[in-house]
Amino acid sequence: MKQMLFVCLLLASIASAASVQEPTHELAPGYYMVVAAYSPSAVNYAKKYVSFLNDKGVGADMGFSVAKNLIIVYSKNYSTKPEAVAALVSERERTSEPKAWVYSYHPEGAPAVANNTEDDTKKEPVENSPVDTPNEDGMIKKDSVKIEKVVAQPVTEDTAKAEVPISHQGMTYLNIDAFDARSGKPIEIEFKVIDLAHNRQMATATSGSSFPLKEPNSASKLIQVQSNDVGWQKQSFDFKYYEPVIDPMSIFLDNLGDTTFVSFEMTPIRKGDIVTLYQVFFYKDAAIMMEKSKYELDQVVSLLQNNPTIKIKIHGHTNGKSAGKIIALKDSDDVDFFNINGDHRELEGTAVRLSEERAKIVGRYLQSKGISPDRFEAKGWGGKKMLYDKHSPKAKYNVRVEIEVIED
Questions:
Q1: Cis status, amide bond into 154, omega within 30 of 0
Q2: Which residue ranges form the domains of the chain, and what is each CATH number?
Q3: For residues 17 and 180, which has the higher predicted lDDT (pLDDT)?
Q4: At 277, phi and psi to the nearest 5?
Q5: What's the mean per-residue pLDDT of the chain?
Q6: What is the structure's pLDDT at 94?
Q7: Residue 266 CB contacts under 8 Å (≥ 6 apart), including other chains
Q8: Backbone phi and psi for residue 353, each to the nearest 5 degrees, phi listed first
Q9: Which of 104, 20, 103, 4 has its CA nearest to residue 62?
Q10: Residue 289's beta-bridge partner residues?
Q11: b vs e for 229-238, b when ≥16 Cβ sit within 10 Å of the residue's Cβ?
Q12: Mean pLDDT of 159-163
């Protein structure tokens, strides 16, 4: 999985941390290279993630931040900030990933921790901030504020240099994580990022990775992250670009370092659930699919492969009830599901028959991918269950295929 691969790369040079602490154990004052964070209600997920990393030979531990009211999962802690920042810069340059960040923890009343001295650094870095490249005079300009570069000990010509700008206002990166609600293990699925004010898709993201996200061009700055995989019950979360906050009902949502993290607990679709395959398209008057349908069809394949007890019914629907010609595959051995090639059968039939042929062709595609035919059945409805009037501007949505889970 991408997330695991990156974490392994990021932490390969870091020694294993101590044994996992209880979430009630407060972090010691210091500077931490953090790889994840969770709300207190998600302590079991934090434990599972730490165990997951340690089982893979990647040193990880966790502790509680009273200041943030968060469980912090980290790879290593440092006594000075320049040391921590230099380690972070080194890892980011090596992996080209923004996954980890430096977190400074100094609760009120805690003993002072060495931050830097006149001998080991030139200037004080700024906490919890991303890494930018300085200009020719060694200064970083961001939001009209200049920050001088930091040099970690020992100071030599070969010393790694850590350039740290001011903490961002809002997001630089967005990271979406997803977990299987049954096992707590990370899963890789697709999400959409929506500008809610304009109902416009801003990005498509795969869980387990970070990516840059631009500010939405709206007054509200509202963003929605929504799951986009037919095999899982739909999940979504709304928040403001400049004001991501922790929601006690979610696993985690917060703005730390230069990354905002959103995590979802995902549940597979269950008996009685009906999912519309919005991205499965057919040629006109044909039970032949367009090639762009493959992605969503393969999500159905993954659903059935990952959940061997699930059985489904494939429902076909048309816009209206008119009869006419139907273009179909030439025979049962024809597996050219995505091309009108002139070598097909041409039938006469009702809208019900057209919709049934379309449902059957979806089933045949599943079978071609190794799904047993006893795990699905096909049903054609024609125009009996239209969503909109056949002359409506939205009439195209009447033409659809739906998946109903009939056994789980």
A1: yes
A2: 2-129+131-162 (no CATH), 174-266 (2.60.40), 274-407 (3.30.1330.60)
A3: 180
A4: -90, 85
A5: 74
A6: 67
A7: 178, 179, 180, 181, 187, 189, 227, 232, 233, 235
A8: -65, -40
A9: 20
A10: 282
A11: bbbbeebebe
A12: 29
Cα–Cα distance measured from residue 66 to residue 111, given in angstroms and rounded to the nearest whole number: 15
Rounded CA-CA distance 388/260 in Å is: 39
Rounded distance, CA 6 to CA 97, Å? 8
C-beta separation of 352 from 380 below 8 A: yes
C-alpha dihedral, 114 to 118 to 120 to 122, nearest 10°: 110
Give the other-Cβ count within 10 Å of 2's Cβ.
13
Give the separation between CA 211 and CA 214, rounded to whole angstroms.
10
Other Cβ atoms less than 10 A from the Cβ of 24: the count is 10
Q: What's the pTM value of the predicted model, to 2 decimals?
A: 0.57
Write out pLDDT tens, residues 225-250. Answer: 999 899 999 888 887 777 665 444 44
- Joined together, the tokens standing for residue 87 give 């380690």
Tokens of 113: 């921790």
Q: How far apart are CA 295 and CA 301, in angstroms?
A: 10
C-alpha distances out from residue 331 to 82, 291, 345, 348, 364, Å: 70, 20, 8, 16, 12
Give residue 270's identity as a one-letter amino acid code.
R
Q: Residue 71 — φ and ψ, nearest 5°?
A: -90, 120
Alpha helices in 41-173 (DSSP H): 43-55, 81-95
The CA-atom distances, in angstroms, between 263 and each of 48, 158, 173, 241 are 14, 40, 14, 16
